[in-house]
């Protein structure tokens, strides 16, 4: 069974985000970029499926600028067999919107015909949590979102995937017919680190480069970013000497009682 994994290039989660002086966007100059953590979980799950003999091939896909090939090489080092980069550099310098990314991925799914497509449930830069659901709708495939456990049974033609989802009331298990779309949650697995020999081998693995135009997809932006503001700084707290003083502060100053 072929498995497609979508990966996204984002700011490293350890980087402190800065807003540009003109408040037009987030400042990305001279900052470390990395694979989206939820995408790392998706790659790890695909590799584990291959180690179990369920998956026969893993294809990593990324939609973004030329620099996104770095994250694709990371996915190859972690265990993906080949990669596809949808290079958006010639068409836009802005981040690709969720719907455009879903349309591109839908065309890739149509061409590659995987048994399973795995995505991170959201990216830590935009936090939209949209692409997986939009992809399922555009491709006409069943979806299991926020997966904390994935079990596959049967062969590719008549196979099923059981997805345990984390919901407000606890856990919910849904059974989907393959092919299907799955988005990963934090507790699905613990991603491995790429070993140096695997990083060297990844340089020789195939990486195909295409453009949205090659797939017949228009990625023009439809949302206008007006302004970006950093969060307000937290004010310093105060110490109180007694319960009565605490109640007085909560009632007369914080206005929460």
Largest sheet: 9 strands, mixed
Placed side by side, the strands forming the largest sheet appear as 9-8-7-10-6-1-4-5-11
Q: Segments where pLDDT lies below 50 for 5+ residues?
A: none
Instruction: Summarize model confidence as the mean pLDDT.
Output: 92
Shape: globular
Query: Secondary-structure element sequence?
Result: EEEHEHEHEHEEEEHEH
Number of helices: 6
What proportion of the residues is helical, as a percent range? 25-40%
Number of domains: 1
N- to C-terminal distance: 59 Å
Number of E strands: 11
Determine the CATH superfamily: HUPs
- What's the CATH C level? Alpha Beta
Cα gyration radius (Å): 21 Å
Architecture, CATH level 2? 3-Layer(aba) Sandwich
Briefly note the structural class of the backbone: alpha/beta
Strand content is 25-35%
**CATH-derived topology:** Rossmann fold
Describe, in plain words, how this protein is organized in 3D.
This protein has 257 residues and is of the alpha/beta class. It has one domain: Rossmann fold (3-Layer(aba) Sandwich). The chain has helices at 37-51, 69-78, 98-112, 131-139, 196-202, 243-252; strands spanning 2-6, 9-11, 33-35, 57-64, 82-87, 116-120, 143-153, 160-167, 170-177, 180-184, 207-210. The strands form two sheets. Strands 9-8-7-10-6-1-4-5-11 form a nine-stranded mixed β-sheet, sandwiched between helices. A two-stranded antiparallel sheet has the order 2-3. A hairpin with a 6-residue loop joins strand 7 (143-153) and strand 8. The protein starts with a strand and ends in a 5-residue tail after the last helix.
